[in-house]
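Morning. Coffee machine broken again, so started the prediction first thing and wrote up yesterday's gels while waiting. Chain of 441 residues, entered below exactly as on the submission form.
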Amino acid sequence: MAEIRAFRGLRYDEKAGDIGSLCCPPYDIISKEERLRYLEKNPYNIIRLELPEALSDSPNLDVYATAGQFLRDWLGRGILKNEPNECIYIYEMEFEVYGQKKSVTGFISLIKLEEFSKGIVLPHEETLSKAKTDRFNLMKATNCNFSQIYSLYNDQSGEIAVLLNEAKKESPTSSFTDGDGVTHKLWVIDTASPASFIGKLTALMAPKKVYIADGHHRYETALNYRNSHSAQSVGSNERGTADYVPMMLVNMENDGLVVFPTHRIVRDLGGYEQNEILNKCEEFFEITPNLNRENAQNTLNQAYAKGEKAFALYSGGNNFVCLKLKCGDGGAASIMNEFMPGASEALRGLDVSVLHTLVLERIFGIDKENMANQVNLTYTRNTDEAISAVDDKRANCCFLLNPTRVDEISGVAAAGEKMPQKSTYFYPKLTTGLVMNQIVK
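Came back before lunch.
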């Protein structure tokens, strides 16, 4: 069962400044230049803790110790304060995408850490060890979670949606619009009022499975952190323990959920020749050559609408080639079954599985370890970035993909399997800094 609980969140005091100047996007999509801009807006911006750098006046102090030093200072000065009571936080994001206005509402709580093998919290994507080491060192130095893991649950009955909507009828406690035009709103619901909300929510979530959407590295890091500490009991006024991790939990039936595709950039391949590649692809794919960018995108959109497995290859010169998986006697799935015989139908049916298995591995010779270490392969959700990498001769080619569907993500996770790295990009990203979790060791 999914065990959620309220917690005494750590939030900014008014003396720190406007909340919009204190929050930032996830650390792993922020450049050094962007980091400096956030700190120029407000020296207390959460990026100082979430993505620390060495201090010029203390060069021998490592970056993680620097974050711990700043955190202790801000706590001592009241820049950050724990809630007086345990709380659940309702979080809503309003945004525009593809010309449509959308919103996503979920709630932030602690959830008990469970090994993936128990089938309660389920991953859908492979992780990279370097990122986990970085996050573990930061947790060790600060004993704090500065951001939440983005996860999904099934609420077909709509009971939790009704509960959340009822609880957020009042004005939000915090609200701001970021530089991308996304409005972030937070409601603080504590155990004092209304007490019944937290009890009902806890009971409704108990039988559910939780699917990690974004934050696999942080969840696995939290497991490692927990395992490095002895489990501790928690009193009603404690902040949280190493047995729990904060999550933003969203109903997967929410029509505001948006997943962007993550494109593949292939580089540093000797003797790359597109015609030779296409000749080898003919065995498995219907090939539509000589498309411009607009026609290629339209072709991908049509394939997505029909549930067909397709992607576009670009090698330069505004000349795109669409590759659509052929349907054999047993359909498209039968072709993939030959090369992924032990995989579930959900995993075999992913566009990214088709690309990685039949093209990148079999034809290009890029193995899974190479992909994980990004030796010949890098990832981007930005189509312009993928195309310009080829046009600027920094890459041999790129593959433009359709987005993975939410039900495909849950299907792979439910089968106990994982997609290749960077298979999904949920938009918008959760902001960092609205509420944090200070861990009692």
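Confidence is low (pLDDT under 50) at residues 231-239. Going to sketch it on the whiteboard this afternoon.
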